[in-house]
Amino acid sequence: MTDPTYQFTRAITRRPGQSVIDGLRAEDIGTPDLGNMLEAHAAYVTALQSTGAKVIELEPLEAFPDALFVEDTALCLPKGAVLMRPGAPSRRGEVAEMKPALRDCFEDLREVTGPGHIEGGDILVTGREILVGRSDRTDAAGVGQLTEIVADWGYAVREVITPPGVLHFKTDCSLLDAETILSTRRLDASGCFEGYRVLHVPEGEEAAANAIRFNDPVIMAAGFPRTAEMLDRAGFRVVEIDNRESAKLDGGMSCLSLRF
Ligand code: CIR
Prior knowledge:
The protein is 22% helix and 23% strand. By secondary structure, the protein is of the alpha/beta class.
């Protein structure tokens, strides 16, 4: 039986363009190097493809420096997709650019029209519900509109809180299987994962919390050996990708694709 929370046949990615050096960041820890980033991006796409999935690779969008972080533009579910309304003004136009690709893949394509805001990075779909973290990018009105849309497809949304100073809910957690979550201690401490099996990212490796379970493997950022070992011991097959350039823009493994 397939599990729609981590078994996927397709993904959408977008290559970074030259303008990526102007991408949003909470703190300036250096300018991303496009060459290194393209190399890491290609390795990421290869990791997705190696599971047998088809990857739709979109062209760079120079007008939108953060457009490689496609996850924030939509939520893809088995019965349909929902276009988001990013809270970051500079990212709002990315949604219209994603629309044609999703039109080709989904018969039922809905849209969050506002006035609220919501970004895909704040949404975690588990086997039993959809968790949405309120953050600087996602507000109550956005969560409310998403709740109404996905109710049509039989989903319950639970609003939770993205910790202050954390960009997105999924910056600090990932789904490993329908019932298992990889989380930082600071996020789990909020109680939002009660009833789930939670694996904590070892102290000092918080940046490893943003991973993706994509078919068999868990794809995670390289450079976090204790997290990799913990996942391996828990029975997951780990694939590591260099995330040093995306990390300069607060991006991680989930941000780089839409999976369905
Ligand atoms: C931003 O600030 O919007 C981008 N520089 C990073 C987006 C990361 N996306 C994600 O976590 N889903």
